[in-house]
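Let's practice the habit of predicting before peeking. Look at the sequence and jot down your guess about where helices and strands might fall. Then scroll down.
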Amino acid sequence: MKRRFRSVGLDLAVQKIAYCEVEGGEVVQRRTVSRLTALEDLLGPDSPPARVAIEACREAWHVHDRLSERGHDVLVVDTTRVRQLGIGQHKRKNDRIDAEALARAVERGQIPLAHVLSPQRRQMRHELSIRRALVETRAQYVTTIRGVLRAQGIRLPKCQVEQFPDKLADAKLDESQRELVAPLARLLEGLNVEIAHADRRLDELCSGEPVIERLCTAPGIGAIVAASFVAVIDEANRFHRAHQVESYLGLVPSESTSVKRRLGAITKQGNAYARAMLVQASWQIFRLRSDDPLKTWAQAVAKRRGKRIAVVALARRLAGVLWAMWRDGTVYDAALVGEMSARGLKRQAQDTQVVADALKRAAKKRQSHLRTANKILNQEATN
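Done guessing? Here is the structure:
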């Protein structure tokens, strides 16, 4: 006998959850609660099975796991396509209306599904979020200190951000100037230690992901960029073409075809951090001293369209190259990239020595990044 599911929509707002159940096109149950546990009688382990639709949001994964454990079929809705369900139409959008629209879509079987990340990728994304917040705060503090001292006629030399506390300590400041920046300087030292701890935790997570080491063989790609890409894509085989990956990351041009086909700026849909990391990696490729095929290709684009557009175009192509490497289980091969397009690339089996050499270079990248973190932690332990 076919299992019968109730059709339920949940709208997960910041302070409340709106519940709506539909049967035969009619609303049979509504409720608004402050937390999920208040729906125990409707969505608990002993309640009749339900097919529950929720919009993808910060707590969607937690709700998905909790309700799935209770035997319900949870559908996470792709937020980029919710308007086709009737959500937000006629400028009417509130929790009750959204929950009802989701429930009716469940009953019709018209839910556009979003991908649910695996627990391992979620943990990696959480760690990356923490590290990102720490790094952005550190950058803000360094910029503020430089600005305050520059206003007093003192220009600190350029340096790696990890070395900034040492440069600041060696700077010729009078007592009042040193006292002025002391609060941020103390916080900066603590941030360096916390970032080093975050790097160690990420390195432990990355060591269990062979794909990350392979992606690090590509130019401009370090452990953080590779981890951000893997944490967002999750599974390479859920995409059929490189263009789908590029579109998923918001790196394809926006398009208008109402009169004639017109291309605009990139859509910027999808994960902003992964997109920013790929753009950052593209700038690194532009600065390479060697003539890598990706750099040569981007320089040709820059001559026609300008450097900024070329960097974004390179980030788009880089996303396709990384996906193809992941899909085929290969390492970066400059000669092959130079000969063939990254789009729809069917990689041939690579020479064993090529793979070994590429993985060795990738390991050196990771070790160099980790050495900096270990140096900071060792200094902290000594102090």
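How did you do? Strands lie at 6-12, 17-23, 26-33, 50-55, 73-77, 253-256, 262-266.
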